[in-house]
């Protein structure tokens, strides 16, 4: 049986196709780069995987844009889908940190993968993926390389502002003072990790920890969170598709 | 620890305060006489506590100490982790971070606070104090006394019912303290304490009056420090001596025309609370030949109300009901600042918008409107008084530079 | 029927103007749950609770800073936008810093013939009740002096009767909501409309409404929720909860149970009875030592079989925000999942809230 899930986030759209217990196709599209709507993204993926629309038995949508998805039979919240996807990948998962472009959330699971509690960040941008994007831009780097840079720092600068706009002006003044990019980035990553850590303090932390979402690809964020919590983190090979995977799993369970 | 950003002090007497403060915290920590320790809010008449021999610890002050030692980020963060919103008073978040932060909180200045036996809060200044102290009661599980009194938006009120109620609450407070200390109130001692604190308060009023002098003998950088003994040692001889000495020094500077800056070009009023983590900002204007000549927080222009009754409690009830701080009518409160501008020959006003001090913060926009209406140059900076994460040096200085430039152009 | 209740709020200004035209009486704006409206009603005036609209507080922005209570700020904004021009007076109790600040600002910026500040003691004690009784008498005197008419003992007695009936009807509505005969939105709209309609008229409306509701088939309830909020002066948030699969069966809110729980006792001294009801019985975090409040919430929760609690505090609402960490702990210790929002009451906010609410409901359903 073929089922699919789509995660329509603030920046990215991810689709996962599931056949039985196997992921047969997945795709993450940056909606800024390619002006494709969720339908077109799905078309492309299905075509590539050699699957026809009518073969997809159930489709579930998640993410902030889920309610605008016309072809899904059902929607699931981000919390539920992230939990479902992460637990399927790592049955030992008890805490999921989903680090997205705009939203960060922490979810606690019991041993059966059921959500016990969760916390979402406030709407403030400091600590989000978009914040790291704009900081990378400020330093003339690609967002994919800033994590490596941060790890090479001699000493991290202190970013005291809790507001993204203020943090930006602090960073600029450090650039003007001639501070190294590595040290500035180390400071910024520490600030981001602190934010996420603070969010996790709203719940009772239990290992194993799984990191999902685009920001989980950033090696410095991962290392800093591991250090803060004193526990290693499990990171899926493609952390950006976990929500869509969870949605596909929910789709499968509708049909079962 | 982050670098110090305390204000440059211009008066020698001011330099005595840090030692007094250290002694105050050390004494409450080291006392072995079995004195009761009471954590209280500002505005609690400490003369009553003194008369019982109770050691009063004003926790708001401790929060400003933490902020001035650049520890507010760490403590606030710890307080927020414990569940307190970033909206609530920065002082409260610091204290809750200190109490609940565990290993996540920074090391406490002065070796921490002496353990409290009970808590006392007043109801008539702000909501935050009530919420904060109720919270501490839950955390520490010790008795909390709420000293209640009418609020009186008209500024003063001779209404008999208000006085009767205030007296009943003071008497109830005394009963509470008698229970806590298992001793009786020494009314003579209370009377002496009140008389002494009246005297020191009047010297402070005199000093405020003297600060009208040009060039300014004492700026806000000193003033925010020298209010300390009056707030936390009221009714003691040490406090009284301190202000007598300060008055003499200010007088000496006036007579000899010793100003804060060599050549005074402009005079400013600081409205609201200072940023305790960066008091040096108050000196910033001095490089431009300017001086923050006066501030409206803690300001007093009137002599203390004369004793009304032989019984010290009755006296307190009457005088405090008639004159209660923060309780003024909005128009009166605006007028007070407009009068300061005139009396102290102020060229411009810095409006500190301290978002977590709701009491002062809520008044600032109307004050800004009133200043604009009278053509008085002003600039607002939105930064918390205690939480330094709200502060952005570059932005603020750019704003202040533009303000100074505009003000000087306007004056020509 | 629900739509009609919604319309009442929208039409409240027209209704008040019409009432004024028909009766020639005075309309008085009030804030918070501590003003004994009975006296205003007994004086032949119409008390209306001041409320805001979800629009840019463009006018009030000049008078209040950004980080303050959106409810009070928006209500004042309505005043500045001339939507409350029909008011003859305002009564502002000493309930919080923001409300107190608003008293001065309203008086200074808007032309209002009568503005009265009602002192409310912050400490609950026998002396406090006695003192509040004195303040209520002073308030009565103020109203009489202003209107030039005596407020008779009979009129006060009748007013208490009418108000108590309204409370009983609203309490029935609360029970209906528990049984699924009424939705949380309908119940909330009833409370809100009671806050600006003449009470006798509202009693008639409610009587008819409840009679009809009693004959309804009960649809299955969603996830049973308790909501604890600072001020919600509209039903949008509750609608959102119910759209996401929740059913609000109990509340702890000023525009909710704090308005209708506990009646005024029959007493030879109605002023004492009013003082007791409005000071002691209103479980507001500002005046009570919060432990008692928690007992109240616990009791409500148990009686209604709530499965989850949603806490909605307006930003900068100090009285509620200090209490939150302990309230949350108390509810969690009782085994109740808790969802918290610091609300700004903007339209845009609802979408992010929807995400969390859906996840919360899914979590409870398991």
Uncertain regions spanning at least 5 consecutive residues of chain C = none
CATH architecture of the domain at 16-142 in chain C: 3-Layer(aba) Sandwich
Order of helical and strand elements of chain B: HEHEHHHEHEHHHHEEHHEHHEH
Q: What string, H for helix and E for strand, traces the elements of chain C in order? A: HHEHEHEHEHHHHEHEHHHEHEH
What's the CATH class label of the domain at 16-142 in chain C? Alpha Beta
| CA-atom Rg of chain C in angstroms | 20 Å
Spatial order of the strands forming the largest sheet of chain C:
2-1-3-4
End-to-end Cα distance of chain C: 34 Å
Contiguous low-pLDDT stretches of chain B (5 residues minimum) are none
Record the strand order, biggest sheet of chain B: 2-1-3-4
Question: Judging by the overall fold, what is the CATH architecture of the domain at 186-297 and 329-412 in chain B?
Answer: 3-Layer(aba) Sandwich
Q: Which two protein chains have the largest interface (Cβ within 8 Å of the partner's Cβ), and how many residues from each?
A: B-C, 51 and 49 residues
- Helix count of chain B, per DSSP? 15
Which range does the strand content of chain B fall in?
5-15%
Structural class of chain C: alpha/beta
Annotation, overall tally of beta strands of chain B = 8
Number of strands of chain C: 8
What is the number of helices of chain C? 15
Provide a descriptive summary of the structure in words.
The complex is a heterotrimer of chains A (256), B (412) and C (366). By secondary structure, chain A is α/β, with parallel strands linked by helices. Chain A folds into two domains: 109 residues, ATPase, nucleotide binding domain (Nucleotidyltransferase, domain 5), CATH 3.30.420.40; 144 residues, ATPase, nucleotide binding domain (Nucleotidyltransferase, domain 5, 2-Layer Sandwich). Chain A has eight helices and ten strands. In chain A, a hairpin with a 3-residue loop joins strand 1 and strand 2. The mean pLDDT of chain A is 89. Chain B is an alpha/beta fold and 412 residues long. Chain B has a domain of 196 residues: Rossmann fold (3-Layer(aba) Sandwich). Helix content of chain B is 49%, strand content 10%. Chain B has a four-stranded parallel sheet, with helices on both faces. In chain B, helix 4 packs across helix 5, helix 5 packs parallel to helix 6 and helix 7 packs across helix 11. Chain B is globular. Chain C is α/β, with parallel strands linked by helices and 366 residues long. Chain C has a domain of 127 residues: Rossmann fold (3-Layer(aba) Sandwich), CATH 3.40.50.11890. In chain C, strands 2-1-3-4 form a four-stranded parallel sheet, with helices on both faces. In chain C, helix 3 links the parallel strand 1 and strand 2. Chain C is globular. The two termini of chain C are 34 Å apart. The relative contact order of chain C is 0.12. The model of chain C has no long low-confidence stretch (mean pLDDT 93). Chains in contact: A-B, A-C, B-C. The interface between B and C is large, with 51 and 49 residues.
